[in-house]
Write a structure and sequence with these properties.
Elements lengths: L6 H19 L3 H8 L3 H8 L7 H10 L5 H14 L14 H9 L2 E6 L10 H11 L5 H14 L1 H4 L6 E7 H5 L5 H15 L4 E6 L13 E5 L8 E4 L6 E3 L2 H17 L3 H20 L1
Parallel strand pairs: 1-2, 2-3
Antiparallel strand pairs: 1-4, 4-5, 5-6
Helix pairs in contact: 1-5, 2-3, 4-5, 7-8, 11-13
Pfam family, one: DUF5753
Protein name: Helix-turn-helix domain-containing protein
Length: about 290
């Protein structure tokens, strides 16, 4: 698959365009579903980009919306074709968060708040293995290996020499204190965290316990932004059995304001490096004791 074709992003753009055409026609999703003899949920899934869109779906919808410009129809049909290609992550089999990976792969910047663990893009392999083993105690070894490999592949965005992901991570102190794997695993992980924070496109801030209650108290979330103005920002909230994607402007704005408060309450970049280094010293003393 050409590297400039991301099926997840193509589905999302196509869905947004189909929604725009429906709204121009003044039709509700229920009305469209009734015309095509399909469920309203199918129309909603097509428009939010959460399922593949066939060229037949595009043809039928363009017919309902009375799109007469063949160039528009052809463009949408090509997008549908592209959206059915496979991204690099499909080589690893069934990945439960493949939609997120597709968005992350195409994102220009990512702001993430993590209250419990080190963000996936900044994890060492040993930390990731121990973390996934602990989170999925009943998963077979092969599944653990696959998830770790996918996580490692995702990290290529951080080291990409031409188009690195702009990452801003606010991490709660509890993520640094929670011993995942062993003391040595934590030492290596925290040292890597400091090292990666030195990259010009990576910013790491720690939110210490002493700050008390804060806007992120309800849990982890990430905000993804894209280079193309046609792709709206997305708030991603990870769940146990399903994930939540928020794309409405007022939702993204609300989470963005929350993130600004988190950044303001967290230690600055240099204070964060010193803070992490002190915790590394604590783990080192404990390992020698």
């Amino acid at each position: 698959m050409p590297t400039n074709v991301n099926p997840t992003v193509r589905r999302r753009r196509l869905g947004q365009e189909l929604r725009r055409l429906r709204e121009l026609k003044g039709m509700t999703a229920e009305e469209v579903a009734e015309r095509l003899l399909v469920s309203q949920s199918k129309i909603s899934r097509l428009e939010n980009g959460r399922r593949s869109i066939s060229q037949r779906d595009v043809r039928d919808l363009c017919g309902v919306y009375e799109v007469e410009d063949h160039r528009i129809v052809d463009s949408l049909m090509q997008m549908a074709k592209d959206s059915r290609q496979q991204g690099w992550w499909h080589a690893f089999g069934d990945i439960p968060y493949s939609v997120y990976i597709g968005l992350e792969t195409d994102a220009e910047s990512l702001r993430v708040y993590e209250p419990q663990v080190v963000p996936g893009l900044l994890q060492t392999r040993s930390y990731a293995e121990a973390l996934i083993n602990g989170a999925l105690p009943e998963a077979p070894p092969g599944d653990i290996d696959k998830r770790v490999s996918v996580r490692a592949r995702r990290q290529d965005r951080i080291t990409d020499p031409e188009h690195p992901l702009r990452l801003w991570a606010v991490i709660d102190e509890s993520a640094l204190r929670r011993m995942v794997g062993s003391k040595q695993v934590m030492i290596e992980q925290l040292e890597q965290l400091v090292e990666l924070s030195l990259l010009p496109h990576v910013t790491v801030q720690v939110l210490p316990f002493e700050m008390g209650a804060h806007p992120g108290i309800n849990g982890q979330y990430a905000i993804l932004e894209f280079p193309d103005a046609a792709d709206s920002s997305v708030v991603y909230i990870e769940g146990v059995t399903s994930d939540l994607y928020l794309e409405k402007a007022h939702d993204v704005q609300r989470y963005s304001v929350m993130y600004e408060h988190l950044r303001a309450q967290a230690l600055n970049v240099e204070q964060t490096r010193q803070f992490i280094t002190e915790i590394v010293k604590e783990y080192t003393r404990l390992s020698h004791g």
